[in-house]
Structures are given as structure tokens and as C-alpha cells.
Design brief:
Helix content: under 10%
Number of helices: 1
CATH class: Mainly Beta
Low-confidence stretches: none
Mean pLDDT: 96
Shape: globular
Largest sheet: 3 strands, antiparallel
Radius of gyration: 11 Å
Oligomer: single chain
Distance between the termini: 15 Å
Bound molecules: zinc ion
CATH architecture: Single Sheet
Number of domains: 1
Strand content: 35-45%
Strand order of the largest sheet: 2-1-3
């Protein structure tokens, strides 16, 4: 499992981020959140997440 450095999305079984198309992925991350409704999630707002999905909270 990897996280996208550009948008924090969790990427599984791929070398490209499905959300932003970036290939800048890392396994060096900690924390995982699942955002269902970005508009009502304070964490999502803080992390600038606008699309529902799984995200890393901390990317090194
Ligand atoms: Zn991305």
C-alpha cells in the first residue's frame, strides 16, 4: 500500500494515483483516514480533501 505525495490518496495495486494521476507515491506514510463525506469532515477540510476515499494523514 502506498500514498500519493501530491494528494495523499492511498493507492493499492497501482503505480499511478487514481485521483490525481501522479506517479510520486511513497510507502513512507503513517495514519490512514477514510473520508466518506469531505464536506462534513473537519479532518478532510484540514487536509484539503474534496473527494471521498482513503487518505494518509502523515506523509514523510
Ligand atoms: Zn494523488
Amino acid at each position: 500500500m502506498k500514498a500519493c505525495r501530491s494528494c495523499r490518496a492511498i493507492v493499492e495495486k497501482s503505480d499511478t494515483c487514481a485521483l490525481c494521476g501522479s506517479k510520486d507515491l511513497t510507502t513512507e506514510f503513517s495514519g490512514l483516514i477514510i473520508v466518506i463525506d469531505p464536506n462534513s469532515s473537519e479532518i478532510a477540510k484540514k487536509l484539503n480533501i474534496t473527494v471521498p476515499g482513503k487518505y494518509a494523514t502523515n506523509i514523510k
